[in-house]
Amino acid sequence: MVHGIGTDICDIRRIRAALERHGERFAEKVLGPNEMAVFRARRAQAEARGVAYLATRFSAKEAFSKAIGLGLRSPMRWRDCETLNRPSGQPEIRLHGALAAWFDQQGLVAHVSLTDESDYATSFVVVETRQP
Which Gene Ontology CC terms are recorded (predicted)? Predict the structure, then answer.
């Protein structure tokens, strides 16, 4: 059964501007430790790849927070919600800390889809009740 649906569109230019203003501190505030490692690797290859990665993850966190119905209130924290890719490339949401405990207690499971173009990143999240 569907618990909630969330979607978000993020202007990549806005994320780029935030990085220019605040440096890597901005990424460290938004990304979890595993995401941060991927961000740094992609950014080292090409600045635009790193910025697009950060934008898609920012968007996914926004969409997830909407789908669970909490917004950005506790236990939802930026760094406790990571969107990482499986070996197949499929994105998945991995939760940590109090957010993971709350999510598990609710009996929920999340599905995420990400996409980006030159100026925008978009995410779509469906959260459903786990089957017994």
Answer: cytoplasm
